[in-house]
C-alpha cells in the first residue's frame, strides 16, 4: 500500500474575515498550511500535494519546498478549482500512479495529529474502500424544517462528527467523483452514494475545522501551549 495525501487549501475562508486565503492566515507566526503539511509529512506518506488558490501557488511552493527537503518526501502544489471537489481532483491527478490509497485533508484542520493520518490510512482495505475519522456527538441534535420548527430528534448514540483526513482506495475516490460530482459535503458522502462501505476510526478534537475568528483564537492558544 502506497499512500498519497491531498491537502485542499484553495478555499477563500470568507467566514474568517481575513485578507488572505485561510490556508495563509498566520497562527503563532506561521501559515496554517505549514501546520497541515507538517502533520501529513509526519505520517510518512509517499507523496503530498497541496491544492492552493491559483493566486497563491508560488507562495505555497516557497512554503512546502523546505518541508519536502526536511522530510525527504515529494510535496507538490497545484492550482485548486472553483469547488472543493475540483480541488480534490486536481490534487489526485498529480499523485504518482503508485499511490493506491489517497488521504484527502482540509488545510483548515491544520492541527490534526499525524496519528489520525496513520489510523485512517491503515483502515483502508479492499473491502472497506473509504474511511473517515469521527468523534461522538455530545449535544442533542435536532432536525428542523425551513421555518426552524423541530421535525425530529435522531438517536445521539448513532451520530458522529466527521473530520478529515478521509482515506480512500484511489480508484474508488475517482469513481465516486466521476459518478456524483459535488452531490455531498464530503468525499466519503460520494462513496456512500456508490453504495460502498465507509468505515470509521477515532478522530481527534485537535482536528477541528478552523472556520471562525474564535476558532483561530483557539488555534493561537494551542500553538502557545505546544511552545
Ligand atoms: O469551504 P470549506 O470550509 O468546506 O472548505 C474545506 C476545505 O476545502 C478548506 O481547506 C478549503 O481550503 C478547501 N477548498 C478548496 N477549494 C475550494 C473550496 C474549498 O480547496 N474551491
Automatic annotation (TrEMBL):
EC primary class: transferase
UniProt EC number: 2.7.7.60
UniProt keyword annotation of Transferase present: yes
InterPro entries assigned to the protein according to its UniProt record, in alphabetical order: IspD (IPR001228), IspD/TarI (IPR034683), IspD/TarI_cytidylyltransf_bact (IPR050088), ISPD_synthase_CS (IPR018294), Nucleotide-diphossugar_trans (IPR029044)
Protein name: 2-C-methyl-D-erythritol 4-phosphate cytidylyltransferase
Role this protein plays: Catalyzes the formation of 4-diphosphocytidyl-2-C-methyl-D-erythritol from CTP and 2-C-methyl-D-erythritol 4-phosphate (MEP).
UniProt source species: Candidatus Phosphoribacter hodrii
Gene name of the record: ispD
PROSITE patterns (alphabetical): ISPD
CDD domains, per database record: CDP-ME_synthetase
Positions of the record's site feature: Positions MEP for the nucleophilic attack: 156, 209
Membrane-spanning segments: none
PANTHER family hit by this protein: 2-C-METHYL-D-ERYTHRITOL 4-PHOSPHATE CYTIDYLYLTRANSFERASE, CHLOROPLASTIC
Keywords annotated in UniProt: Isoprene biosynthesis, Nucleotidyltransferase, Transferase
Catalysed reaction, written as an equation: 2-C-methyl-D-erythritol 4-phosphate + CTP + H(+) = 4-CDP-2-C-methyl-D-erythritol + diphosphate
Stated family: Belongs to the IspD/TarI cytidylyltransferase family. IspD subfamily.
Annotated pathway: Isoprenoid biosynthesis; isopentenyl diphosphate biosynthesis via DXP pathway; isopentenyl diphosphate from 1-deoxy-D-xylulose 5-phosphate: step 2/6
BP term (GO), one: isopentenyl diphosphate biosynthetic process, methylerythritol 4-phosphate pathway
The keyword Transferase is assigned to this record: yes
Residues the UniProt record annotates as site (Transition state stabilizer): 15, 22
GO molecular-function terms, A-Z: 2-C-methyl-D-erythritol 4-phosphate cytidylyltransferase activity
Amino acid at each position: 500500500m502506497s499512500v498519497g495525501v491531498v491537502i485542499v487549501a484553495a478555499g477563500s475562508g470568507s467566514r474568517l474575515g481575513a485578507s488572505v486565503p485561510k490556508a495563509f492566515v498566520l497562527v503563532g507566526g506561521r501559515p496554517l498550511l505549514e501546520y497541515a503539511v507538517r502533520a501529513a509529512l509526519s505520517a510518512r506518506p509517499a507523496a503530498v500535494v497541496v491544492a492552493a488558490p491559483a493566486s497563491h501557488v508560488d507562495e505555497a511552493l516557497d512554503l512546502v519546498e523546505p518541508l519536502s527537503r526536511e522530510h525527504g518526501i515529494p510535496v507538490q502544489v497545484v492550482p485548486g478549482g472553483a469547488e472543493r471537489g475540483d480541488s480534490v481532483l486536481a490534487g489526485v491527478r498529480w499523485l504518482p500512479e503508485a499511490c493506491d490509497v489517497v488521504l484527502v485533508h482540509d488545510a483548515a484542520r491544520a492541527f490534526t495529529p499525524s496519528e489520525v493520518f496513520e489510523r485512517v490510512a491503515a483502515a483502508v482495505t479492499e473491502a472497506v474502500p473509504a474511511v473517515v475519522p469521527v468523534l461522538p456527538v455530545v449535544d442533542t441534535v435536532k432536525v428542523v424544517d425551513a421555518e426552524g420548527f423541530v421535525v425530529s430528534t435522531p438517536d445521539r448514540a448513532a451520530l458522529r462528527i466527521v473530520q478529515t483526513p478521509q482515506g480512500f482506495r484511489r480508484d474508488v475516490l475517482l469513481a465516486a467523483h466521476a459518478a456524483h460530482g459535488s452531490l455531498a459535503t464530503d468525499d466519503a458522502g460520494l462513496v456512500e452514494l456508490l453504495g460502498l462501505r465507509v468505515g470509521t476510526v477515532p478522530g481527534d478534537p485537535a482536528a477541528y475545522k478552523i472556520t471562525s475568528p474564535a476558532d483561530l483564537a483557539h488555534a493561537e492558544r494551542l500553538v502557545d501551549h505546544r511552545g
